[in-house]
Amino acid sequence: MHCAHEQATVWTMMGVMDEDPGWNFTLRSIATVVAPQLALNRSGTNSLATTRVFFTSFSTMLVGITVLLFVVAGSVEVEEPRSTLSTSVVVVYGVVSLIAGRRVKRRLDCTSSSSLATSYVKRFFLRLAFAESSALIGFTIAIGLGPTSVYFIGLAFAVLGFALLAPTRRNLAADQRNLTGDGCQQSLTRALLDQSAAHP
């Protein structure tokens, strides 16, 4: 019985790999990275492609925030107590954002293929917001209180959050494994591919 369950799980994982078309960015999709709203307006764009476009766009935004920090901040000299306070606030917020992001709708809705895709997309954007906010908080405190180095603590939490939520084959396979363990027979990757980006 146990072996049968493991074999079914292996076949499910292979199905995820076979169905996933990859990231496959074209010139048109690269344009949507700059303006991701275009991905929602394009007919025929599926939810998997859309989450990957938005993920790439927000990742690029982290680079932009980092460049902006060097442009507007410079070296900010601060007293040790303020530096300790800034670091503490960013670290605490980063930990909270990671925990909150992981707890957001951990279990996906397997009622139907559509509800499965919709619950994944909603969870993706909520987790993306939590992860991105760590860098934004770090940036704000670096500019307002200093030192500028505190931003990179927030950035580290953001990058970790991004790695955990990225719509990669590995993360999709992990979600599929959890779904299969809960008795769900739906394919998450197929559900995302079948759902139009305009639907969520």
Number of domains as seen in the coordinates: 1
* Radius of gyration, CA atoms, in whole angstroms: 20 Å
Number of DSSP E strands? 0
What's the helix count? 9
Structural class: mainly alpha
Main beta-sheet strand count, sense and barrel state:
none
Low-confidence stretches: 1-15
Helix amount, in percent? over 70%
How would you spell out the order of helices and strands? HHHHHHHHH
Tell me, rounded to a whole number, the average pLDDT.
80
User: What fraction of residues sit in β-strands?
Assistant: under 5%
Terminal CA distance reads: 38 Å
Shape: elongated
How is this structure best described in words?
It is a single chain. By secondary structure, this protein is mostly helical. It has one domain. The protein is built from nine helices and no strands. The chain has helices at residues 2-19, 27-34, 37-41, 47-72, 80-103, 113-144, 150-165, 169-181, 188-194. The longest helix has 32 residues, at 113-144. The two termini are 38 Å apart.
Q: Care to give the gist of this entry?
A:
With 200 residues, the protein is mainly α.
